Amino acid sequence: MPKITYIDHEGLSKTIDVDNGLSVMEGAIQNNVPGIDADCGGSMACATCHVYVEEKWLNKLIKAEEAEIDMIDMAYEPKKNSRLSCQLIVSEDLDGLVVYTPAKQT
Amino acid sequence: MKKIDSIIIGAGPVGLFAVHQLGIKGLKSVIIDNLDKVGGQCIELYPDKPIYDIPAVPECTGEELTKKLLEQIKPFQTEIFLNERVEQVYQENKNWIIKTNKKNEFLAPNILIAGGVGSFEPRKLSIKEAEKFENKFLFYSVKDKEKFKNKNISIFGGGDSALDWALELSKFSNVTLIHRRSEFRGAPHTLSEIKKLESKGKLSIKTPCQLESIEGDKNIISLQVKFEDGKIEKIKTDFILSFFGLIMKLGPIAEWGLNMNKKTIEVNPHNFETNKKGIFAAGDICNYPGKLKLILSGFHEVALASVECFKRARPNEKYRFEFTTSSKTIQSRLGKK
User: What is the mean pLDDT of the segment spanning B291-298?
Assistant: First the structure.
């Protein structure tokens, strides 16, 4: 099972085995990883599952579609490596992915 | 204080349909919503996006759905209080009293919370100097544009609000439009107008950059933006307008003593009552085993809740289940002969 590492804004790290096909957001919510709210439940209608992706992973991920980029504008302190974790679907290719959760989601 | 049968919090699709379900049972409602218009998430998040899972409506947009619901509840002539947030809720015998931020008071045996994911509020600038200038030199919405005449205005954001105000204010002020990336998203016509103004030197655009600091003591003098390449630029500014969209905050609901599960309210799925007798929750904000955040689920939830609301509002009357197709009483309430 792919391992996904979530690091919060204070540097606390949690590595979780996440099933293929789940989103990085769902991996966090189902395992009580704090720092991801996911108010809309994964429909790309809010920006509360916002994460910063470790730089080296940026190009390995499927590119964000326009609607995701628009929504990231609404996130708290977006950066170049910002993504919505509901749009990152876990597969073997993502084994070892590291995401940083922002200081807050709203 | 206004006395009524039910107070509905939230004017989204579920709150609007609640008016109908309560109305055909002869109950009068009021709706209170923090936004400036009805429709809730349908209007605020996806007015133009098609919805495909409303029963018997193969396709409609959030805006169309809202319009249709308003038409459906028109016979009940319900008062809707917009731009108003419920602050306090307390009990008086078998009734509930609600106080809003505009000091309006309502008394009713039933409160139905159809609050979606809470109230929408503008996302605020995160730098710490922002707070002291808020509502004086820094605004998250425009109420009186006269204030901005012949001033230096810095507008943040890349969406419709930012673009529309940049266009409007550039007619009589010195506008700088600032966005964190180089692409804007807005109506194509607005975008081309903005580009035209920029090429004529009537408006300046700074991208891709973000706010770094605000300078000034009593009022704003200037601000600094940081470009992606690390370069810093100072921009002379009298007023800042920031349009980073809306965030959803549960707000005061969390303090009403209801059983909460994260940001949702636990309900009994038989009548959608919360742990407080007479307070109901329906739509995205309620939670019970198997809950789906679908508009159609919300419609079902308010139908069931309305039965319990009837029993509480009319304790001396017997509730009779009726169909709209055959009930003369319902038909007359709907204004049909």
Answer: 95
Q: Which residues of chain B approach chain A closer than 8 Å at the C-beta?
A: 41, 45-46, 117, 123, 126, 157-159, 180-181, 183, 185, 228, 244-249, 263, 293
Question: Which residues touch B171 (CB under 8 Å, ≥6 apart)?
Answer: none
pLDDT score at B176: 97
Each residue's pLDDT tens digit, B210-251: 999 999 999 999 999 999 899 999 999 999 999 988 777 888
CB B293 within 8 A of CB B158: no
Domain membership of residue A71 as a residue range? 3-100
Task: State which residue of chain B sits closest to A66, comparing Cα positions.
Answer: B185
List the alpha helices (DSSP H) in B117-234.
130-133, 160-169, 188-199
Q: Residue B89 to residues B16, B100, B256: CA-CA distances in angstroms?
A: 21, 9, 7
Which tokens belong to A69?
């980029």
Clarify whether residues B171 and B264 are in a common domain.
no
CATH no. for residue A95? 3.10.20.30
**Number of domains comprising chain B:** 2
